Amino acid sequence: MDVRTAQKLVMENKHAKGFNVTDVPLEVCLLQGEIAEFFTAWRTSEGDAAEELADVALYVLGLAGILNIDLAEQMEQKISKNAARVYERGANGVMYKTTPEQTSAEH
């Protein structure tokens, strides 16, 4: 399933079931809860980590829908932007970006 279709289906389900479609802070809090459930399932091997991760993705799609963000488009742009970045490993082993971000004037 593609991202746009999934986002549309998530929003249709939210409307059909009477779930939140306006309160962004609430949706962020619910998303945090789903992330915690995924982490607990993964860390303890109790529960279904894959299902919990799917819940995280569905909440992200719903949040994008509430905010009228075309998440597929934003993901495509971000993947392209990340691919163009150059990273180096610092002395402490941490990766850091070595290419400067483009400013809006450069676009």
CATH topology: Helix Hairpins
| DSSP E strands, number | 2
Count of alpha/pi helices: 4
- State Rg: 18 Å
Could you characterize the architecture of this molecule?
By secondary structure, this protein is mainly α. It has one domain (3-100): Helix Hairpins (Orthogonal Bundle). The protein is 64% helix and 6% strand. It has four helices and two strands, in the order H-H-H-H-E-E. A two-stranded antiparallel sheet has the order 1-2. Strand 1 (87-89) and strand 2 (95-97) form a beta hairpin. GO terms for molecular function: nucleoside triphosphate diphosphatase activity. This is Pyrophosphatase. One of its GO terms (biological process) is nucleoside triphosphate catabolic process.
Summary tags:
two-stranded antiparallel ribbon; mainly alpha; 4 helices; Helix Hairpins; 107 residues; globular; disordered C terminus
Summary of the model, kept short:
The chain has 107 residues and is mostly helical. The protein is 64% helix and 6% strand. The radius of gyration is 18 Å and the shape is globular.
Topology:
Blueprint lengths: L2 H15 L6 H21 L4 H18 L4 H14 L2 E3 L5 E3 L10
Helix pairs in contact: 1-3, 2-3
